[in-house]
């Protein structure tokens, strides 16, 4: 179903429709698209206009109406998120291998397991992909038209929702990651000069844990209009430096 531009001439009816949009979004457990909202409202409702007005209305409220993965949802205002954190927080932890694998999939999708291993410079265990798929951040996208027809992997809508980005194009680029302190400029320069990462095994990395939410949040705070620049060259460096930060934190602890 595709919505067309609709002009609502009855102010009272338009106000009623906007309240309906607001109520449906508030009650929904997941983000909703324009078409999904239109299906639940009376015929003639200008859903897109109501969404635009509600977005503006809630921009200065304690909760914001945001667009994520092409759909709409209410979310706590970013500057108030600290009020909702519990005294004892148990963040989701991922191994260094899982973080690197997720980063490669996000920036290179659709990508095969062999391609992931080539970029990382080490083989990955099936358990690493299983963890990411169980978290519903990664999914099988299909099969590559090459000998053996290997499975390709990509990120999911839940990945976008969890990290609060509208589309995969909004992932931070090299400059944003460097500005957030997630990349070491010296390491990046050495890599461009031909530096080769040392080979590792997943078994040596299983104990290296990091808080992925903190890492992504830090990078997003520094995101600028320079999105998508040098995305492919950033992946290996991003994964290495994020994990090294996690190792230093564990040592300090």
Evaluate the radius of gyration. 21 Å
Apparent shape: elongated
Bin the strand percentage. Answer: 5-15%
Largest sheet: 3 strands, antiparallel
Distance between the termini: 54 Å
Structural class: alpha+beta
Total strands: 7
Q: CATH topology of the largest domain, which one?
A: Arc Repressor Mutant, subunit A
Q: Please give the CATH architecture of the largest domain.
A: Orthogonal Bundle
Order of strands, main sheet, comes to 4-6-5
Number of helices: 12
Average pLDDT level = 73
Keyphrases for this structure?
253 residues, alpha+beta, Arc Repressor Mutant, subunit A, 2 domains, 7 strands, 12% strand, WH_DNA-bd_sf
Structure description:
Mean pLDDT is 73; it is low at 184-211 and 221-236. α1 (11-27) packs across α3 (47-57), α4 packs across α6 and α4 (96-108) packs antiparallel against α12 (231-252). The strands form three sheets. The chain has a three-stranded antiparallel sheet. A two-stranded antiparallel sheet has the order 1-2. The protein contains twelve helices and seven strands. 48% of the residues lie in helices and 12% in strands. The chain has helices spanning 11-27, 34-40, 47-57, 96-108, 113-120, 126-134, 157-163, 174-179, 185-192, 202-205, 212-221, 231-252, and strands at residues 63-68, 71-76, 93-95, 111-112, 138-143, 151-155, 209-211. The radius of gyration is 21 Å and the shape is elongated. By secondary structure, the chain is α+β, with helices and mostly antiparallel strands. It starts with 10 loop residues before the first helix and ends with a helix. The chain folds into two domains: 11-81, Winged helix-like DNA-binding domain superfamily/Winged helix DNA-binding domain (Arc Repressor Mutant, subunit A, Orthogonal Bundle), CATH 1.10.10; 93-252, Arc Repressor Mutant, subunit A. This is Segregation and condensation protein B. Residues 204-214 have a biased composition (Acidic residues). Keywords: Cell cycle, Cell division, Chromosome partition, Cytoplasm.
